[in-house]
Amino acid sequence: MRALIAIPHFYRPYAEGARHDSLRPSARTERARALATSILRLHELFGSDHLAAWHEQGCVRPAVNPERMQLDIVVCVQDGAHLLDELPCPAGLFHRQIATGDPQLLGFAAHHVLARERRRYDWYCYMEDDIVVEDPLFFRKLAFFNRHFPVALDPPPLLQPSRYDSPTDGNPRRLLGPERVYPDFAIPDRPLRPGPVVRLSLLDRTYTLEPCRHPHAGCFFLNAEQMERLGASPAFLDLGRPWVTWLDTAASLAIMESFTIYKPAADSLDFLEVRHARPVMLEQLRALPDGTRTWRPAAPTAAAEAA
Q1: What's the confidence (pLDDT) of residue 171?
Q2: Which of 12, 113, 189, 190 is 20 to 30 A from 211, comparing alpha carbons?
Q3: Is 57 within the bounds of a domain?
Q4: Is 259 a member of any domain?
Q5: What is the maximum span of the chain, computed from C-alpha positions, in angstroms?
Q6: Cα–Cα separations (whole angstroms), residue 21 to 15, 29, 123, 183, 261
Q7: What is the mean pLDDT of each run of 10 residues along the chain (307 residues)?
Q8: Looking at the whole model, is its pTM more than 0.90?
Q9: What is the CATH number of the domain that holds 110?
Q10: What's the confidence (pLDDT) of residue 173?
Q11: CA 207 – CA 217 distance, rounded (Å)
Q12: Structural domain contains residue 307
């Protein structure tokens, strides 16, 4: 099995009040840590064999990694506006792709990498530079869903992970409690497209997958057939219709228009999930005096508007 992962990455310090981490001078170390963690976890889970310690023999021996595949990770950057030379991980774990033009469109440079390599890989993956996969069965679950989806849909189904922010990864001053927060669960109360609810039994538990109410996850993972469909879609590489921000557009708009997107339901969020290594979405969580939680976007500062 072969997987291609394209990651857009940008960092150019501007002002502490900027809306995005990629423009805040104080975020430099954490931005580098997040990207390095994303790359290292992919290789740890899917790019290498494992080692098992034999204490009495005083040695370690190779242990089979059944999820191992060939990984090619391409990080798309602009000259002089990245942290690739500061990552706390070996440089040989990724390839560097230099892009020009508007830095807001780096996500589409990553799309071009995927399009250029069509028909060469089994998996085509897009990940923002702070998305971390931590489930060794991640691709196995996607493949199972793709093989066993119960009915034909038009457009066909695509399973997206739940993205979560974890307070343990953030500044303790943000903490309201130890909860995970899934910021991309629902925009409207109804699904974006119709489709059957899917229930899977695994390890004495039933997981529920359903047509999503929010398409975004900061990433997507396509098999070769799905990549062919996306590549043929008029929405792919279309720069004429921004959705929220240009980075959100690259992660979500084309797949939203090309597939019926499924996500784990509220009782099954941990079935397929990715971690947001820079949990800035926690800033939108508010505590009321009675202990309940509310959710609202953080107001951008004047510096953020200027950026």
Answers
A1: 52
A2: 113
A3: no
A4: yes
A5: 64
A6: 10, 11, 29, 17, 28
A7: 97 83 87 96 95 96 95 97 95 95 96 96 98 97 96 97 81 62 90 96 95 97 98 93 92 97 97 92 80 67 33
A8: yes
A9: 3.90.550
A10: 47
A11: 19
A12: no
pLDDT on residue 297 = 56
Cα separation, 35 vs 127, in Å, equals: 10
Q: Which residues contact 56 (CB under 8 A, 6 or more apart)?
A: none
Burial class, 79, CB count within 10 angstroms (exposed 0-12 / middle 13-18 / buried 19+): exposed
Of 265, 261, 263, 264, the residue nearest 155 (C-alpha):
261
Among 110, 45, 123, which Cα is nearest to 77's? 110
Per DSSP, the residues of the chain read: -EEEEEEE-------TT-SSGGG-GGGHHHHHHHHHHHHHHHIIIIIS-EEEEETTTTEEEEE--TT--EEEEEEEE-TTS--GGG-SS-GGGSEEEE--S-GGGHHHHHHHHHHHTTTS-SEEEEE-TTEE---TTHHHHHHHHHHH-SS--SSPEEE-PEEEE-GGGS-GGG-SSS--B-TTSBSSSS-SS----EEEEETTEEEEEEE-B----SEEEEEHHHHHHHHHSTTTT--S--BSBHHHHHHHHHHHHHSEEEEE-TT-GGGSEEEESS-GGGGGEEE-TTS-EEE-PPPPPHHHHH-
Distance from C-alpha of 284 to C-alpha of 277, rounded to nearest angstrom: 16
CA nearest neighbour of 37 among 99, 89, 90, 115? 89
In a domain, 258, yes or no: yes
* Pairing outcome for strands 50-54 and 59-63: antiparallel
Question: Residue 301: its pLDDT value, please?
Answer: 39
Residue 292, pLDDT score: 80
Is the CB of residue 16 less than 8 Å from the CB of residue 303? yes
Specify the residue for token string 């997040």: 34
Please tell me the total count of domains within the chain.
Answer: 1
CA distances from 35 to 5, 22, 41 (A): 13, 12, 10
